[in-house]
Design goal:
The chain is an alpha+beta fold. The chain has helices spanning 4-8, 35-43, 74-85, 114-122, 134-138, 171-178, 188-245, 250-293, 302-319, 327-337, 449-453; strands spanning 24-26, 32-34, 50-52, 59-61, 103-105, 110-112, 131-133, 160-162, 167-169, 185-187, 339-343, 353-357, 371-377, 383-388, 392-395, 401-405, 413-416, 422-426, 429-433, 457-459, 465-469, 474-478. It has 11 helices and 22 strands.
């Protein structure tokens, strides 16, 4: 029967948490991990249907999205249970009847019985060594930090690390194999220091990211409070007007209150969804950070190292995402600010008032004595206004006058073609212009001035031009070349 020390050196440790397997679950790729470790990884997966192995990165379907339903590695669980109930024996003294170990020296890598532990603590050269009691080791509270022996050279410790092979090796293996392949070699201790620094950096970035998201959540809560305050004011205005109209308006009051509640519910739901998404981001980041932090416990190797690299890459990718934007919750508040209550002043009207959503940006007046004859939206977003006795005025969406063209041309209708040309109707005739408002030599056989003024004009997606005539009550269709259809 193998000893406790021999068994614990075998593959009985989870590559993620680096402790003896607890409820080991096997993935489709045959790699095994603790159920709780897989559960934390599953929480960070984009799809809640499969889980990606951190060692080989192959996907495994999760039955019903429940990690506990994955296949249990029964032989491995039995072996772990056997290890847990067997106490290690002293690996220092050479007595025939091995004494049970009561402690373990982390620096010597030796299990010690009570006698050897007493001698070890009294030896001056070992006074700085870290000694852990077996009860803490068996419970998993304390991890055994040990340098592995080389499998090819059992008397040598793996004190080097090959960055190309991603494995710990002894000095002999470095000389006999890795130098020949011109591999990059580091001291194991230096590699572990870099690993710890990388973990600390990721933790700091995660901390900063969480702070940003928490600030975003606080901002959302502030917007919710402002919306609630504004909606309460709306309710108060409704109540005050209701008192003026007495009980004859109770039905209308109830309808308006319900409308406010629906607004409140919809706006609240939007902000709640934004907040939940941000909280879920922090929850996922906590899970990923906790998995990455396990790398500081003991030297990583083989599957554990590959798994840790994968987890670090996942966290780096997660931290690279854009920070949340406060524009969305601010937009919800701005929509709420545009809602106002307007009461009716006539008491004999059985209508308390109504809620209005306003968005008026400007009141625009045409310059001089001009009168507006038509209005349409230009392809560049400006507003084109035809004027009498002549000219086309272009305004920005905010109502600022941008340009005036065709000042001497009477305009009753305006149309825009997909190639940039413009069609202008007025004074009983229709003309085609370039994007620079240069008149083209295209003739439209339209009705006379009297029949052409009273009507409208529009352009379809094929650039066909539709002209309506008011008094004759007819519509004519032209191609962009002036040919009637």
């Amino acid at each position: 029967m193998a000893t406790f020390h021999q068994i614990s050196s075998q593959n009985l440790e989870c590559p993620i948490c680096l402790t003896l397997f607890n409820q080991p679950k096997s993935l489709a790729c045959s790699h095994t991990f603790c159920k709780d470790c897989l559960q934390r990884i599953f929480q960070t997966q984009p799809s809640q249907q499969t889980i990606t192995c951190p060692v080989c990165r192959k996907g495994t379907p999760v039955p019903s999205g429940v990690v506990s339903k994955l296949q249990t590695n029964v032989p491995l669980r039995s072996l772990v249970d056997e290890v847990k109930i067997k106490s290690p024996t002293c690996t220092v003294c050479e007595m025939d009847g091995k004494s049970l170990a009561v402690s373990c020296c982390q620096d010597c890598g030796k299990f010690m019985c009570k006698s050897c532990d007493s001698k070890h603590s009294s030896w001056a050269p070992f006074s700085t060594h870290t000694v852990s009691v077996m009860s803490e080791i068996l419970s998993g509270k304390v991890q055994i930090k040990r340098r592995q022996k080389c499998k090819k050279h059992p008397n040598d410790d793996e004190e080097c690390f090959c960055t190309d092979c991603r494995e710990y090796v002894c000095h002999k293996c470095v000389v006999l194999k890795h130098f020949q392949g011109r591999h990059q070699i580091e001291e194991a201790a230096i590699h572990e220091e870099k690993l710890i620094e990388n973990i600390k950096e990721l933790q700091e970035r995660a901390k900063s990211k969480k702070t940003t998201i928490e600030n975003h959540i606080d901002f959302i809560e502030t917007q919710r409070s402002e919306i609630a305050s504004m909606l309460r004011k709306l309710s108060d205005d409704i109540d005050n007007t209701y008192e003026e109209y007495m009980q004859t308006l109770s039905a209308r009051r109830k309808a308006l209150k319900c409308q406010v509640k629906r607004l409140s519910k919809n706006l609240e739901k939007e902000l709640q969804v934004m907040g939940e998404e941000s909280r879920q981001t922090i929850h996922q980041m906590n899970a990923m950070e906790e998995l990455v932090a396990n790398g500081v416990k003991v030297p990583l190797e083989k599957d554990a190292l590959i798994a840790h690299d994968t987890l670090c890459e996942n966290l780096k990718s997660f931290l690279g995402r854009d920070d949340p934007d406060n524009q969305s919750p601010r937009g919800v508040t701005e929509r709420a600010q545009k809602i106002s209550f307007r009461k009716h002043m006539k008491v004999n009207e059985l209508c308390l008032g109504e809620l209005k959503s306003w968005d008026v940006k400007a009141d625009v007046e045409l310059p001089g004595e001009a009168c507006m004859t038509c209005m349409t939206r230009a392809p560049d977003g400006k507003i084109a206004v035809g004027a009498w006795p002549g000219g086309i005025h272009f305004y920005s969406p905010d109502g600022e006058l941008q340009q005036i063209v065709l000042k001497d041309v009477s305009v009753s209708n305006i149309g825009f073609l997909s190639d940039g040309r413009r069609v202008v109707r007025g004074a009983g005739k229709m003309s085609l212009y370039t994007s620079q408002w240069e008149r083209l030599d295209v003739t439209f056989e339209t009705m006379g001035e009297y029949g052409g003024v009273h009507g409208s004009l529009t352009v379809d997606r094929d650039d066909n031009i539709y002209v309506a005539y008011g008094l004759p009550k007819k519509i004519k269709v032209f191609t962009p070349q002036g040919v009637p259809l």
